[in-house]
Amino acid sequence: MKYYDVLLPVPTGGIYTYTSETDLQAGLRASVPLGRRTLTGIVLKENTAPNSKIKYRPINEILEETPTFNEKYLELLTKLSEYYCAPMGGVLKGVISEQIYASDKLDLQIENFKREELTLNAAQVPVYENIKKVLYNGFSTHLVHGITGSGKTEIFVELATDVISSGKQVLYLVPEISLTPQMEERLSKRIGFEVRSYHSKKTPKKRKEAFWSFVNGSMRMMLGARSALFVPAKEIGMIIVDEEHESSYKQDEIPSYQLRDMAVLYGKILNIPVILASATPSLESWHNAKTGRYIYHSIPSRPDSQMPDIEIVDMKQIEAIGGVLSHKLYDAIYQTIQKQEQVILLINRKGYSHTLYCRKCGNILNCSNCSVALTYYKSKNMCKCNYCAQEVRRPKCHHCGSDDIADYGIGTEKVTEVLESAFEKQILRLDTENVKTYKKLSEMLKSFETGEYSIMAGTQLVAKGLDFSNVTLAGIINIDNMFTLPDFRANERAYQLLLQLAGRAGRAEKKGRVIIQTNMPELDLFSRLDCLDTSFYDKEMQRRQMFNYPPFFKMCRITLSHTNEDTVKDAAFMVYDIIREKAETAEVFYPAQAPIYKLQNRYRYAIIIKSPNNNELTKLIHTASAILKDNTKTTLRMKTDRDPHFFM
Description:
23% strand
């Protein structure tokens, strides 16, 4: 009889000891009992000092002869757990679906076909050659800073071909599921075999097929969103993180990991190169490149086209057409579609209007569960909370009972309505309310690519990496709300979004044009919208250093929540008092109500900690957890977000 620790996908703890009559290897999948349930877990190691007072239950079944999860993969989970101060069970549950890894192993045949030959241009060749020099020399991290449309993907395909030829696999990560249909097709043609993607919008069957094909090595290259990093393939030889700056790489739920950082960590564990790529790098990556931690590569030009001209329209004195379009943007759209070219428009809000208010008393109608305004969706004649997803019919005023309710603020639905009326054309609307399945997303992008629609209007999805050769005009309808967020990254995010959207225009031989509508044209940011001008980074870095923000200081946001206001407030001040006393070099900020104070009927307080010392920050996080564990017996919740990206 032997005892083994098994990791299970449960939110707390997660490591339990079971008995086995046979010797077991670490990394094997095992079916075990937990209470009345049966779960599939991972054998970690033999437990040589079991508690003699406990009667341990036996493992039900070992599901395989050779381990799916190797030692280096388990090391990644362990380090992720340690850094983000999350229990191992919560880490396993948060990074990989039990439904997928517990399924039967599949052995798919990947289709091969004639590769579309590539010829790198004069700007691409030095980047390719400089990375290739160190491709097989173990771990290195490369930041490829190439302007939009500069051909970064072509370089990565050539490098991937080299890695695959050496018998290794390549993992290609993208920030949005919306990018995978186009990328699957492009990569497959250029790499010479079927490249499959792995993400949550795929059907369970398709996910299992991609998962096991990559695990068993029959698929040499896999495309994926965040979760793809945690597919336990044994022969990964290179990891590519495209659009590395994107905040969607940051997971909001526990464990709140930053995928870019975990990719670099995994590359170090595997001793392989990691490539980070962006036209607008994150300040963290920029800092790492400038201080020598990353190897920096620049592609300052497009191969066959110029960067588009950017025009700023001051909306303060303008009576907009339909409350949406300036005359300049209207004329530009009209001229573009008359030339049989296409337009992409960004609207930074979903729905028809983002705020409802009472004409009688002026009260704003909030969600009954959350302290946020309801969004009106005209297509469904419903009001919805974009945080808890509650839907209600257009309500009466909660304050005075009046049914004279008006709305203001424009979203994708209203913009689409105005455009269809103005240009008498059907508009392709792309937002998360309109795109529910991967199949529909693929069909919509294909229909735009084939010219079925002249105009695509959508949320930030339209700005992220899409490549349409006939798009010559990009327009930003509203962006100003980004500048009012309580977030030290607000300027950085706006800068990245604007330049990424600008990069959708003029990607082929036709000249592109970008028009940005704003009520704040005087902002310094608008004068620095140039991929070749690094002054934005220089200025933003100075500001971050002055106020001890990342990348110069490490940061953590502790959010406490409870259904009772007094309970959560008392807990927040108790935690604050104790960790402030224990802080040495760290700044511990006074507890404050979260910007969204009530969320899903729970009141929320947040405490920010900033420290130049990673170890001290870890110690303070564990102290906060211990305080609550010892002093509360209620349903109080604590969420720890290290390197936070979301402050609402």
